[in-house]
């Protein structure tokens, strides 16, 4: 290379580097100073968190902020910082597309309330993907105070959809709600779900164990998760667990594994303790998360879910906190996720720390995302800050000070 060419090259490299460092210099740095920061086991230590745009850049346990001159400082002395909460089972868009206008305002209000209650991510377990994609986009671009949204496409057998569509205005299959039979080209079915923006397949109802295995295999090949109901009919919970799905929803449906005669949807058999342990250990070995949804279970008098969840926790099965609650806030204005959390501590043997891990780290695992769920360098700046310690008293989760989702601050307080 000639000298002149070399100089030009050097000039170009310098320009690019300067441009790069200048962009870097312009990135917004915010420091959350002097709070109690929870680690992945929910032990807390006094320190500060440095956020750069939407990521956690640094965490330090000294008073020395000199490393970041010009940073915006938010003093959180005496407050507690945990990862943002995750509801692993919501339904944000079950209304038909035609009714959208009517429900939009209501749902936007619910999404906003979720953010202020500390929920930074939700997993939607089937709904209209046109509406969900819209909310998801609005949330990603911070056009709406809303949690990050991940959603599923619903796969079920003809018996389920025939029954369902008798009452529905939306006729026929869509990429997000597909009838699956032996004749289905699974590659196309999963590709369509993926094209509709789903990141998981909800294995819903009326499917054989063979078909479930095919779905799980193809979903995995295309980088999608498999989120199943615990009982799918005719497939049993053991069939579902054997298919190595990523999560199984509804602890109260687990007793369908203990039928001795013909499976009957309307009649849940009694719990067989020996068989229950066998199934739960299978779930544990296959790393399947139990999306227990006890809040909706108890409201429908399906109290067996609590017994199942308690035993699952004792045996070391991971349990996520999902509500499956269609009306996100009731009149008492308490976030339904808190009610699910409360059942887990009160009736299922979870310590406060256990349940906080369920509502954050396990929640992220249930969705199949690794960029959130714990406070660590490089993770998303998804945080929930409370005025008092939730590990000490779980009710303190309702004593919120600030939610941060991908670096954006949501607070009703003056800072
Ligand atoms: Zn559901």
UniProtKB/TrEMBL annotation:
InterPro entries: Amidohydro-rel, Metal-dep_hydrolase_composite, Metal_Hydrolase, Metallo-dep_Hydrolase. GO terms for molecular function: hydrolase activity. It comes from the Bacteria. Keywords: Hydrolase, Signal. Residues 80-403 form the Amidohydrolase-related domain. The keyword Cell inner membrane does not apply. Residues 1-19 form the signal peptide. Pfam families: Amidohydro_1. The keyword Hydrolase applies. This is Hydrolase. It comes from Flavobacterium frigidimaris.
